[in-house]
Amino acid sequence: QVTLKESGPGMLQPSKTLSLTCSFSGFSLSTSGMVVSWIRQPSGKSLEWLAAIDWDGDKYYNPSLKSRLTVSKDTSNTQVFLKITSVDTADTATYYCARTTVILPPYYVMDAWGQGASVTVSS
Amino acid sequence: DIQMTQSPASLSASLGETVTIECRASEDIYNGLAWYQQKPGKSPQLLIYNANSLHTGVPSRFSGSGSGTQYSLKINSLQSEDVASYFCQQYYDYPWTFGGGTKLELK
Description:
The complex is a heterodimer. By secondary structure, chain A is an all-beta fold.
């Protein structure tokens, strides 16, 4: 059974760095074709894809946020991390991680999502 | 970035009815399209990928179609558990982008 769970600070102040962790089980990020993505959703709004990291350690970022994002994974391939620097109120959202698998290269689909971690940026 | 325009933004339908949600891409995305269902307070769940392939475990009353820049999600015989928001997403090109969503309610 594939499960993912996001964890984060809940609340942080503007200008700080947001650190999020995605802990997962039921699949291995070392498997060829496997990817973990980060997506966020402000309350009542649509979804925004942020970043992804693949089995080979290659990283992909949304250009609109690229300068502020860093995605990484641990050596055991059971956790993926996302850092967002210089946060402001616009970064208030629920942050999801999702298993992303290759269906037909170069197409990938987010086929299992975590429950989400709510993050509020406020002074 | 590829812009995804979804319509309608909200939809009210009766049990047993057939509903259709549309998604238009700003350029050809060559069937690189997924549909997700998000129930209130829950995370999105994959319904359809490659525009018309049903994800494992998804009821057959859901179907996807389209090509080029125009895609649609159809729900046959609407059930109460289908009350949710629905999002399209293109994965043809980075950055992956989502439609604005369609909120489906029961009439």
